[in-house]
Specification:
single chain; 100 residues; 5-stranded antiparallel beta sheet; 2 helices; globular
């Protein structure tokens, strides 16, 4: 029997440091662009309690056969994708408009 649990991904930054994130949602737009919404996974309760709760939204691209996550540089694109994720996730989480 398969076990259900969080979808955890490990991301290696430019300095070679690994970071773990829980994937909350994924979307694909009509233009075949893919995006992912994640939150950090912490090793201890103190780091979790000190987290600001900000959602991390990245574009997913395929580069030389590997999946690469990259920041969304365009503010309008980021706002559009952020609103889509916010609507989809608002049913599961308490999301405030003013960032509090």
């Amino acid at each position: 029997m398969d076990e259900y649990g969080p979808d955890i991904v490990t991301v290696v930054d430019d300095d070679g440091v690994e970071h773990e994130f829980e994937v909350l949602d994924r979307i694909e737009t009509d233009g075949d662009k893919k995006y992912i919404a994640m939150i950090p996974v912490y090793d201890n309760d103190e780091d979790f309690l000190n987290d600001d709760g900000e959602l991390i939204i990245l574009r997913v691209i395929e580069e030389e056969g590997e999946t690469v996550l990259e920041p969304i540089e365009d503010d309008d694109e980021f706002d559009e994708i952020g609103k889509i994720f916010e609507e989809r996730l608002s049913e599961m989480f308490d999301i405030s408009e003013d960032g509090e």
